[in-house]
Structure formats: structure tokens, C-alpha cells
Amino acid sequence: MSALPPTEAVEARAIGAYLGLAVGDALGATVEFMTPREIQATHGVHREILGGGWLRLRKGRVTDDTEMSLALGRALLEQGIEAKAIAEAFSDWMRSRPVDIGHTVRRGLSRYRRTGETEMPPNEYDAGNGACMRTLPIALYTLGVAESEVEAACFLQARITHHHPLSDAATLTVTRLVQEALLGADVLALLARVEALIARHPEFAFRRRRVENPGGYVVETLRAVFQALFDTDDFESALVEVVNRGGDADTTGAILGMIAGALYGHEAIPARWLAALDADTARACREQALALLRRAPWAGAA
Ligand code: MN
Ligand code: MN
Looking at residue 85, which CATH number applies to its domain? Predict the structure, then answer.
């Protein structure tokens, strides 16, 4: 058996993943739905957490990407991997009048309230990025379980609102990228995982042309994330690269942030971004990262 990395190292990367998600969301939200040209004209290179954007956010405020992750994490900590508990947590969050909510998420949660069903029927329009963006708590909570159980947990949370093979594949891949990075994988190991995804779903091939204005389609989202992740070699460069492409920038930022945060660790996140992040959000992210990891089977093996 190969040696497990020290607990402290994995914890540092888990905190990095959660703060990376939040920082990516907060940085990207300022330029969500802008084109790269508009971003350039307004900000030069956008590299500071400022708030604003089409949602007129307070500086340091995060959006649905981080909030739904925190709701999912709370449900996991209270009741484990239970579809009903997770759907209720999402529904409670929707009731809290969130600053933003995706169309597919709203439709799925409205259906849950009407029918009590926790799995959407397969739908060709469900290939948005809304399930993938909130997968981090599953990655932490299932660290160390068999691949088939990670997959089952991913699909269970995803299909509450999104039921599509590309959403499923994207959600599982991002979850596994985070888990491998938490356990110390290097960037080449992550690239191999992405190439395995592309072998099954060629839509995700990301080398053909530069992605600008990535939309909510999870294939576009992940192509932009993979380009930024594999063409840079530190957290700040990767995140600046992806959000300056505009489009669904808070969500590309959130997904890139969770993977790069796990890969490079929280020490790699610029201090000015951590200082700008809403303090209650930052505290919740740190606490949940550790609490979820401590419940994971991995912790028992360490
Ligand atoms: Mn958002
Ligand atoms: Mn978004």
C-alpha cells in the first residue's frame, strides 16, 4: 500500500479547495456575462475582488455556487448522503431569497416541492453546470470510499436538479480531480483523469480553440476551466485566466478555484483575496472543509 499523505497536508488542501471555490465565485461574479473585450475595457485585467457586476454584489459576497455547496455540506454533516435531506437543504436555500439562482435549479427544486421526488427524469436540456459547481462537499465527504460509491453520491446530489449524461460525467470528473489533488496528485495525474473523460465524452476536448464567453453549458464551462488549469502553474494565474474569459465567470471561477485550491493548497491563495472574502462565508468554508473531511472514510485510514 502506498503511504498516505499526512493529515495536516490533506486538511490544508481541503481548506484550499473550499476557499478556492468561494474566492473564484466572488472574483468571477464581478464580470459574469461580460465579454473578454468588455472586461478589458472596464478593468484591464480583472484581478481584484470588487463586488458589483450584474448582481450588484457587496464586495466579498459569493453567489449560488458557494451557497448551494454550503447547503449541501450542512445536509451531509447532519444526515449523511440522503437525497431527501439534500433536496430539503437546497429548497430551504431557495426560500432564503438567494441573490442568484439558475433556471434548471429552480425548476428542479420546484418539482421536488410539488412531488417529493428527489431525482429529475432524464432531460436533454439539463447539461448546465449547476450540479457540477456545488459538488465539493461530496468530494470531501466521500474521500477514501470506493469509486462506485463516489459516483453514486455524485449522481444522487446532481440529479436532484440536473439529469443528463454530460452533467453527470462533469460532476464526477470534477469530484475525482479534487479528491486526487487532495491526496497529493500532481497536475499530470489530473490531466490523465481529464483525458479519460474526453475518451468517453469527446465534447470535453479542450485543446481545439480558446474558449471565450463560456456559457452555462457544462461542456463549455469545463473546457475553459481545463485550459486555464493546464496552461498555468499557480492558483492566482489560473483563476485570473479563467474569469477574464467572461461568460459564466463566477461558475468557471468556482470550479477552477476548487480544483486549483486542492492542487496548490490554501497557502497559494492570495492573501488580498482571502481578506476581501466575506468573513462569515470564509469561516463557514474553513469549518465545513475540516468537518466533512473528518467524517470521510479517509480520516479513519490515516
Ligand atoms: Mn453564481
Ligand atoms: Mn454563474
Answer: 1.10.4080.10
- Judge if pTM exceeds 0.90: yes
Distances (CA, A) of 115 to 84, 88, 142: 12, 13, 29
Give the residue numbers spanning the domain of 165. 6-301
- pLDDT digits over 175-216, tens only? 999 999 999 999 999 999 999 999 999 999 999 899 999 999
Which cell goes with 224?
475553459
In a domain, 1, yes or no: no
Distance 282 CA to ligand 1 centre (A): 17
The rounded Å distance from CA 100 to ligand 1 centre is 6
Q: Is the pLDDT assigned to residue 1 strictly greater than 70? A: no
Contact 85, 78 (CB under 8 A): yes
Alpha helices in the chain, H assignment, sequence order: 7-29, 36-43, 64-79, 83-95, 103-115, 136-141, 147-158, 165-182, 187-200, 218-230, 235-243, 249-264, 271-276, 279-295, 297-301
Give the pLDDT of residue 298: 87
Nearest to 29 by CA among 91, 99, 97: 99
**How many domains are there within the chain?**
1
Tell how far the Cα of 248 is from the centroid of ligand 2, in angstroms: 5
Question: Which residue shows C-alpha cell 498516505?
Answer: 4
Ligand whose nearest atom lies closest to the CA of 221: 2
Tell me, yes or no, whether 93 lies in a domain. Answer: yes
The partner residues of 128 in beta bridges, in order of sequence, read 217
Ligand 1 centre to CA of 243 (Å) is: 13
Element (H, E) at 146: none
Which ligand has its closest atom nearest to the C-alpha of 22?
Answer: 1
What phi and psi, each to the nearest 5 degrees, are found at residue 217? -65, 125
